Amino acid sequence: MLTLVSDVEMLARFGRALADPIRCRLLLALREAPAHPSDLADQLGISRTRLSNHLACLRDCGLVVAVPVGRRTRYELADPRLGHALDDLRAAVVAVETDRTCVDAEEKGCCQ
């Protein structure tokens, strides 16, 4: 049972990050391997500006970190356990039910 406010806030922050399909795709891509923004934008088929906004949100949520590599910046999951958590969460959701759509699926928001 979660009793600490900080536990609830952390889970809510993670949930808000996952509430956007692009951020989900980013987290899943970074689960596979660290990447540079230009590669992520190409992989996801979105503009670099849009990608930058989503990466900023994920950084603010504490889920990804920016690692300077020379003159470039590489992004990776803040902790390898996040990759395992994503795998476990995906497996649990698929095991429960796959033919449901969340009522609030159309709402967008950031991690604030």
Describe this structure in words.
With 112 residues, the protein is mainly α. The two termini are 24 Å apart. It contains 5 helices and 2 strands. The protein has one domain (5-94): Orthogonal Bundle (Arc Repressor Mutant, subunit A). It has helices at residues 5-18, 21-32, 37-44, 48-60, 80-96; strands at residues 64-69, 72-77. The protein is globular and about 45 Å long. A two-stranded antiparallel ribbon has the order 1-2. The model is unreliable at 108-112 (pLDDT under 50). A hairpin with a 2-residue loop joins strand 1 and strand 2. Helix 2 (21-32) crosses helix 5 (80-96). It holds the Pfam family HTH_5. Residues 4-100 form the HTH arsR-type domain. This is Transcriptional regulator.
